[in-house]
Amino acid sequence: MNVAVWAAEIQYVGTIVLKSQDELFFPSRIAVTEDDLFLIPDQRDANIKVYDQSGSRTQVWGTRGHGPGEFITPWPCDYRRPYLVLYDLGRFEVMRFRREGPATFQYEAYQKGVLNVWDVRLWRDKVVIAGLVRGANGRRDESHDVYSLDLSTGELDGLMPSHMKYGFRTDGEYRARYKNIAPLGLISHIHVHRDVLYHVWQARLNVVRIDLKSRTTSSFGKTTALFREPYVTDAMKKHYGERGASRIWEKELQRFSFVVGVFASDDFIGVLYENYHAGSSSWKPILQLYDPQGSLKDERMLTEVQFYDQRPIPFAFKEEGKALFLMSGIMDSDGGIRHEIVHYRIR
User: Fold this and answer.
1) Residue 246 reports pLDDT greater than 60
2) Under DSSP, is residue 33 helix (H, G, I), strand (E, B) or coil?
3) Which of 73, 92, 145, 216 is deepest in the core (most CB within 10 A)?
4) Half-sphere exposure at residue 175, Cβ-oriented, CA atoms within 13 angstroms
């Protein structure tokens, strides 16, 4: 990549205010279609809400239940024309839908028994998941953190060992020191561009890159002065696993930065992390841009975005047009949440 390409940097395009009176509950990921509709899973209402570029809600689809294509707790999702894939936490199920109209999705394939998925991505005729799965003995398998899943056969293929997620060299080191990092959280984020997988863990500013054909692995990432390196504090150790410790935990986590996503194109790799700002009582994202070789080229706080609590800020990246969309969640004086989608262009 030449210097001229980086000169445009990160451009703020505008903010889309969601006009519906819906209060979206725990949105964890948004997806954007080829015709610029936003698909937002709503965990409380057990459905998918569809918004257009004006912020108007154009459709709600999906009903609560355990039948084909129904939802209990829809969570992470990914859209790549014409497919939508998502993981339902309440059903322990990965589902795939085929888009047949502006807001018409045909339930097509599924796989039950996937225990807990932090992120999900479409790749060729398979799905790549980051999370925990059930092993052959029926118990939780902790050997890997990222798998490819064939929805037609249920076959799982481990792509990245768990020790690599946390930066340990071996599985033995991971198991011996697991409790030293577990209180920081387990959530991973992934992205697949062409045949390359990118992975980040929420408490480590490091990208693991895996060529899905050759299975070769490399990593990169640069910690800057803006990144507040997480570590397990004495208070976190003392109260780990305790009931009613959420307020203590929340205060401790506000001291650190947390990685909330990764995305890629032919020209760059983007890494998003968030910092807490006491002045606005909210979390704000910082975007890092790396060139294809893994060298940091740009870093910017996205001041137009804020989120009301410490959870991964929902976002979607659309390679066509190099469009990045992040969701703002702003708490009103009456305790309600107002959601907006902030649009950036990277070129």
Assistant:
1) yes
2) coil
3) 145
4) 7
CB burial readout 27-50, b (16+ within 10 A) else e: bbbbbbbeeebbbbbbbebbbbbb
Find the distance separating the first CA and the last CA of the chain, reported in whole Å.
Answer: 11
Average pLDDT over residues 307-331: 91
Residue 293 backbone zone (phi > 0: left; psi -120 to 50: alpha; other: beta): alpha
Judging by beta carbons within 10 Å of its beta carbon (0-12, 13-18, 19+), is residue 165 exposed, middle or buried?
buried
Question: Among residues 262, 260, 264, 242, which one has the least CA distance to residue 252?
Answer: 242
274 strand-pairing partners: 258, 285
What are the CA-CA distances from residue 177 to residues 206, 249, 296 (Å)? 19, 21, 30
Given a cut of 80, whether residue 271 has pLDDT beyond it is: yes
* pLDDT of 244 over the 70 cut: no
Per-residue pLDDT, averaged over 134-149, amounts to 86
Kindly indicate the confidence band of residue 22, based on its pLDDT and cuts at 50, 70 and 90: low
Going from the C-alpha of 300 to that of each of 10, 11, 227, 279, the distances in angstroms are 8, 11, 12, 19
Q: What is the DSSP track for 41-67?
A: EETTTTEEEEE-TTS-EEEEE--BSSS
For 51, half-sphere exposure in the C-beta direction (CA atoms, 13 angstrom radius) is 23
Element (H, E) at 134: strand 126-134
Q: What are phi and psi of 306, to 5 degrees?
A: -150, 150
How far is the C-alpha of 146 from the C-alpha of 159, rounded, in Å?
5
pLDDT band at residue 29, thresholds of 50, 70 and 90? confident
Number of residues written out for the chain = 347
pLDDT at 56: 93
Q: Is it the case that residue 1 has pLDDT exceeding 60?
A: no
* Those residues with Cβ within 8 angstroms of residue 236's Cβ, 6 or more apart along the chain or in another chain: 183, 184, 249, 252
What is the distance between the alpha carbons of residues 69 and 95, in angstroms, rounded to a whole number? 8
